[in-house]
Amino acid sequence: MATNLEEPPASIALAPLPFSSRINSAIRLWIMKILVKIVINVVFLVKRSPPSKCPTYIKTYSVRPNIKNRVFIPSSYQTGGNPLPLYIDIHGGGFALCDPRVDDDYCSYMAQHHGICVVSIGYRRAPRYPFPTGPMDCAAIAQAVLNDPDLPCDKSRVAIGGFSAGGNLSLAASQFDGLRGRLKAVVGYYPVVDFTRSGKRRLKNRPATPGVKDPLEKSGAWMEWGYIPQGMERMDPVLSPIFAKREDLPPNICLLGCEYDMLREEAEDMAEQLAEKEPGGKKILKVGEGWETDNGNIRWEKILGQYHGFNQSPVHFDKPAEAARIQRAHEMQDAVAEWLYRKVYA
To answer: pTM value?
Structure first.
């Protein structure tokens, strides 16, 4: 049952974790950060991506001069041509891991196959920089992108989006002054949107997959410890966008969740709540796979048979499975691009 956004439950601020649990989470998260950073650096050092998958250039903005942002301009674009639609991408990684490079495949695909100028932005990460640093960084850099005269973009056709934590940060940043009213859409791919929910509740409501654990089952708690300050109000709409006022979010919202993802339920609940605010009913996309409201403002899609982060998790030593994974990821992205062109970029 959808929760009424205008009458949320009582204030929620969880009690501090025991000291031993905090130490355990800190050690595990820092080890994970170090290992992930090493892996990403090695992968980008070794692999030779074709020019079509590389950013056109890398840029910093004075609002956050130490953060590098990656700009993807379609190779088909001719200087002086018609301005391009703009998509601001925010990478995931549990608010603590990764950097904009991990979204290169996605950003280059949207640029080269759909003619969109994509700017993949960075932010300072937990646990050194807990909430609200991430949303504030993303909002500041997104505003700088919108004010950038060098981008060949139509600033009236702008969407923001991201994967996992990046989806949360997209919904969070869009509520800030300076972005409200300027962003026409937000796209959240398997985002976390409700930090009032416990890991046990999320796992309990996830479809059973014998022999396969959710990738967030263990790491989710460590990342949550690193990102959310002790005593933080978990119903803060910037932290948990499911509690945001409708007027504080962009007019068009597309949310997607993976069938076997412990975060799917809360993303679907948010989509349902948003749909209740729209006139008319819903149009089914495919039975069991999603819908959008009659006016198209709200879109929900469930990616059947997939897990959290599937589009960024290569299947090694199994070429057919890897080909199927890439195809499904592209189908997901194509559907989002079609919606964006229909609702925002038209």
So the answer is: 0.92
